[in-house]
Amino acid sequence: MASETIVDPDFKVPAPERVGEEGKTWSHVIQNLVFTVDHKKLGLMYIGSGLLFFVVAGIMATLIRVQLFFPRSTFLDPDVFNRFFTMHGTAMVFLVGMPMIFGFANYLIPIMIGTRDMAYPRLNAFGFWVFFFSGLLLYFSYFGAPGLYNAGSAPDVGWFAYSPLTAKAFSRGHSTDYWTLSILLGGIGSLATSINILVTTFCLRCKGMTLGRMPLFVWLFVVVAFLVIIALPPLSACQIMLTLDRYLGAKFFDTQAGGDAVLWQHFFWIFGHPEVYILILPGFAIANEIIPVFSRKPIFGYPIMVAATVMIAFISLGVWAHHMFTVGMTSLGNTFFAISTMVIAVPTGIKIFNWLGTMWGGKLHFELPMIFCLAFLFQFLIAGLTGVMLSVVPFDWQLSDSYFVVAHFHYVLIGALLYTLFAGIYYWYPKAFGRMPNRKLGLWHFWLFTIGFHLTFFPQHISGFLGMPRRIFTYEAGRGWEIWNQLSTIGVIIQIPGILFFVFNLIYSYFKGEEAGDDPWDAWTLEWATTSPPPEYNFEKTPEVRSRRPLWDLKHPDDPDWKFE
Amino acid sequence: MTGVHAQGAGADLPTHMVADMFKPLSRPAEMIHETSLLVLVICAVIFVVVAGLLLYIVVRFRKKATDNTQEPPQIYGSTNIELAWTVIPILITVVLILVTSRTIGEVQNAKLPEDALQIRVVGHQWWWEVHYPQYGIITANEIHIPVSSKDPQKARPTELILQSADVIHSFWVPQLAGKTDLIPNRTNKMWVDPYTIGTYFGNCAEYCGTQHANMLLRVIVDTPENFEKWVANQKAPVPPPQTPQEIEGRRLYYANACVNCHTIGESVSKGIFGPDLTKLMTRQTIGAGVAPLNHENLLSWVRDPQILKVGCLMPNMQLLDNEVEAITAYLETLK
C-alpha cells in the first residue's frame, strides 16, 4: 500500500527571520551594520570608515597647505593651524592607516586561508566598534574639550605629543585628554584584531595549507600582528602615565617636578617606529599579491620574502631612538641607532629586488592595480633612500624636524602605503562587489593623484634643505621657502580631483560596473575560487590546497606548482 | 641677500637669510655637509640603478599586443641572485656606517679650547634667553659671536650650552651646525665655528606650542674687535632718561606689572619670565624675530603684544595711549 503522503510537496520551510537579512529599510541597514560579526562586512566597514576619516584629515591638510601658500599669511590662526596638523597626523595614522590595513586583513585572511570567518567573530566586531568610537571621541574634542575659559578645543600638541608640552601647565583644558583616551581606546581595538589575526592564521588554515604555503599577504599580516602586540603596550602605558601625571599628581613626564621629558620620547618611539612597519608591511603584503598576478609569474624567492619580513620586524624593534638623534645622546648611542637603522635597509632592499625579479621575464599587464603597484615601487625607492639619508646621524642633525622629514614620511605613507591601498581596493573591488572598477576613471585618478602627490611632496625635500622646520604656521618672506611651498600647495589642488575620481569610481562601478565573475584577473589564491561577492560562509566546501597557488594548479593540471615548490 | 631690518647691532653685516645646509659656513656644518654629500651621491647612484632597472623591466616585459595567451616561464627564485642582492647592500651599509660613526665622533667629541667663548642659551615659549657667563651679559634672541677661522691655529670656536625653561625647543642655524634640542632638566652642548662674518638665520626646530613658528633665531657673527665693542656696550650703564616723556615712561614702567617679568640692568626690575630689556634697542627685532624693532612696532607691542604675536605669553596691559607712548619713549632709551 502506497504510503500516505504526509509531506505537502509545496510546503517550504520558512527561512528563519534573521536580523539584518533584508537590508531594505534604513533600520535594516543599520541593524545589519551594528550587529554583524561577518569578517567581510567588518572588513568593508573598516575600509569605509578609514576612507571617511581620510577625507576629513585630507581636508585639514588642504587648509594647512593653503595657509602656507604665502609667507605671513593670516588665513588660519596659529592655534587653529596647530590643531589641524595634530588632528591630521593623529587621524592619518590611527584612524586611516590602521583601520585600512585591518580592513584588508579582515576581509581577506579568512578567504585566503580557506576558512569561514575569523577565529573570534565577536571580538572582531568589538575591535571595529572600539576603533570607530575612538575616532569619534578624537573629533568630539572640538566640542567637548574646552573645559576652561580660554582653553583650547582639539588637541594641538603634535601627533607624537612630546612632553612636557602635554603637561597641565602647557596644555590646559581637556584637549590632550581626548587625544590620550582616543589613542588608548584605539589601541585596545588594534590589540583585539591582532590577536584574532594570529589565532585565525595559526588555527583555521584549510587542509594542506602549511605555513610555507600561506599567501605572502597572510604571512606579512602575521608579522604585523606580532608587531602590534609588542609595540602597542608601551604606547598605552605612556598614555596612562600621562593621564596619571595630569590628574593624579604623578611626575613621570612633569619636568617642573623633576620628571623626564625624554622618557616620553623613548616610550612613544618604541611604539612609533615599529608602527611605521605595522603600516608599511601591509602595503608590501598587497604588492606581494598583485605584482605576481599581473606579471603572470609566481613571487620571486618566497622564503626570502618571508625571512626579510621577519627580519624587518625584528630590527624595527631596535631602531626607535633614530627619532631622537638631536636630544643629546652620547656618540655611542647615536652610532648604535644609526647602525641598526641602516641595517634595516638590507632586508628592505631584498624585497624591492625580489619584486623586480618577479616582474623580470614576465608579461606585465598594466591593469589599475598593477599601475598603482609600479608607482609604489618607484616612490618607495625614493622614500627608502631618504630614509637612509636620515639614518646618517650628522645628516639627521640638519634634517630632523625639517620639511625634509615631512617629505620623507609622506613618501612612505602616501607614496608607498596609500598607493598599495589604492591598488588593493581596485584589485579586490570585483571580489567584494562583483563588478569591475572603471578603468578610465581609475586612470584619471592615477595620473592626477600621482602628479599632484609628487608636486606636493618633492619640493618639501628642498625646503627642508633650506632650513624650513616642520609645524610652523607661517614663515617670513626671503628665507627661500616661498616657491617650494607654493608648488606644494598647487600639488594638493591637483590631488583633490584625483581623489574625487577615486570616490566617484567606487560609487559608479558599484551600480554600473562591468560584471566581474569569480576570477576576473586570472589569479591564483583562494579568494578567487569563490563567488563575487563571496557568500557569508565563503566556501561551500572547505578547499584543500597542495601549493602556494591552488588556482594555478587547477588551471594548469599539466604543470602544477606543487611539483616545483 | 640684502638685510631687511636695518637697525640694531650688526645690522650692517651681510645677511644669510637663506639657511641652505649645503652652503655651510662653520666647521661642524662643514663636516656634516661633507658626509651628507657622500651619502647623497651613494643614494643617487642607487636610485639611478634601481629606477633604471624598474623602467627597463616595465618597457621590456610589458605585454605586447602580439603576445599569445601563453604564460611566461614560471621562475620561483634563485639562491645565487638573492645572495648577490643581499651582499651588495650589506657592503654599502658598512661604508655608510664607517663614515657616519667617524663624523659623529668628530662633531660630538671635538675638543674645544679651554678659553672658548661660552654662551648659555635658555629656550622659553617662544623666545631665546642668551647668557654670556664670562662677560656677565644677558640678552635675548640675537646671539653675537666673534668670527673664527678655517686655520685651526687661529680658530675661536664658540660653545653653546643649551637649556630650557619650559618645554622642549631645538636650536637650529643650518649654516653653522646641525640642530640640538633644549630640554628642561637637561643640559645639552653644541659648538659653532663660523668662518665669515654675517647674520645667520635659524628657527626653533621642535614644536613648542602656539608661536613655535615665530621663535626665530639670529646669530650675528662679527670681527673680534666689533664683538668686543658690542660686549663693552652691553656692559656699559644705560643713560638715564632725559625728556619728560621718557621720565614719565620710566615711572609708568616701574608702576606697572612690567617689572614682574622683565629685567632692566641694576634696577628693581628683576623679572625673569620675559626677555631682559637692559639693552633692548641694540637688537634688530622684537618678539623673537616676528617684526623689525622700530618705533612703530614697539608702540604696537607695548599697546598689545597679541597684535604682532598672537598667543604670546605677554598680556595686553590695557594702557592708555599716552602711557603707551611714554613707555615706548622710555624703552627707546635702553641702548
TrEMBL record, chain A:
<keyword id="KW-1003">Cell membrane</keyword>
<dbReference type="Pfam" id="PF00115">
    <property type="entry name" value="COX1"/>
</dbReference>
<dbReference type="InterPro" id="IPR014241">
    <property type="entry name" value="Cyt_c_oxidase_su1_bac"/>
</dbReference>
<feature type="transmembrane region" description="Helical">
    <location>
        <begin position="483"/>
        <end position="508"/>
    </location>
</feature>
<keyword id="KW-1278">Translocase</keyword>
<protein>
    <recommendedName>
        <fullName>Cytochrome c oxidase subunit 1</fullName>
        <ecNumber>7.1.1.9</ecNumber>
    </recommendedName>
</protein>
<dbReference type="GO" id="GO:0046872">
    <property type="term" value="F:metal ion binding"/>
</dbReference>
<dbReference type="InterPro" id="IPR036927">
    <property type="entry name" value="Cyt_c_oxase-like_su1_sf"/>
</dbReference>
<keyword id="KW-1133">Transmembrane helix</keyword>
<dbReference type="InterPro" id="IPR023615">
    <property type="entry name" value="Cyt_c_Oxase_su1_BS"/>
</dbReference>
<comment type="similarity">
    <text>Belongs to the heme-copper respiratory oxidase family.</text>
</comment>
<dbReference type="GO" id="GO:0006119">
    <property type="term" value="P:oxidative phosphorylation"/>
</dbReference>
<feature type="transmembrane region" description="Helical">
    <location>
        <begin position="409"/>
        <end position="429"/>
    </location>
</feature>
<comment type="function">
    <text>Cytochrome c oxidase is the component of the respiratory chain that catalyzes the reduction of oxygen to water. Subunits 1-3 form the functional core of the enzyme complex. CO I is the catalytic subunit of the enzyme. Electrons originating in cytochrome c are transferred via the copper A center of subunit 2 and heme A of subunit 1 to the bimetallic center formed by heme A3 and copper B.</text>
</comment>
<keyword id="KW-0408">Iron</keyword>
<dbReference type="GO" id="GO:0004129">
    <property type="term" value="F:cytochrome-c oxidase activity"/>
</dbReference>
<dbReference type="GO" id="GO:0022904">
    <property type="term" value="P:respiratory electron transport chain"/>
</dbReference>
<feature type="transmembrane region" description="Helical">
    <location>
        <begin position="299"/>
        <end position="323"/>
    </location>
</feature>
<feature type="transmembrane region" description="Helical">
    <location>
        <begin position="335"/>
        <end position="356"/>
    </location>
</feature>
<comment type="pathway">
    <text>Energy metabolism; oxidative phosphorylation.</text>
</comment>
<dbReference type="GO" id="GO:0005886">
    <property type="term" value="C:plasma membrane"/>
</dbReference>
<feature type="transmembrane region" description="Helical">
    <location>
        <begin position="262"/>
        <end position="287"/>
    </location>
</feature>
<dbReference type="GO" id="GO:0015990">
    <property type="term" value="P:electron transport coupled proton transport"/>
</dbReference>
<feature type="domain" description="Cytochrome oxidase subunit I profile">
    <location>
        <begin position="26"/>
        <end position="546"/>
    </location>
</feature>
<feature type="transmembrane region" description="Helical">
    <location>
        <begin position="441"/>
        <end position="463"/>
    </location>
</feature>
<keyword id="KW-0186">Copper</keyword>
<keyword id="KW-0479">Metal-binding</keyword>
<feature type="transmembrane region" description="Helical">
    <location>
        <begin position="125"/>
        <end position="145"/>
    </location>
</feature>
<feature type="transmembrane region" description="Helical">
    <location>
        <begin position="368"/>
        <end position="389"/>
    </location>
</feature>
<keyword id="KW-0349">Heme</keyword>
<feature type="transmembrane region" description="Helical">
    <location>
        <begin position="50"/>
        <end position="70"/>
    </location>
</feature>
<keyword id="KW-0679">Respiratory chain</keyword>
<dbReference type="GO" id="GO:0020037">
    <property type="term" value="F:heme binding"/>
</dbReference>
<keyword id="KW-0472">Membrane</keyword>
<keyword id="KW-0249">Electron transport</keyword>
<feature type="transmembrane region" description="Helical">
    <location>
        <begin position="178"/>
        <end position="204"/>
    </location>
</feature>
<feature type="transmembrane region" description="Helical">
    <location>
        <begin position="90"/>
        <end position="113"/>
    </location>
</feature>
<dbReference type="InterPro" id="IPR023616">
    <property type="entry name" value="Cyt_c_oxase-like_su1_dom"/>
</dbReference>
<keyword id="KW-0812">Transmembrane</keyword>
<feature type="transmembrane region" description="Helical">
    <location>
        <begin position="216"/>
        <end position="242"/>
    </location>
</feature>
<keyword id="KW-0813">Transport</keyword>
<dbReference type="InterPro" id="IPR000883">
    <property type="entry name" value="Cyt_C_Oxase_1"/>
</dbReference>
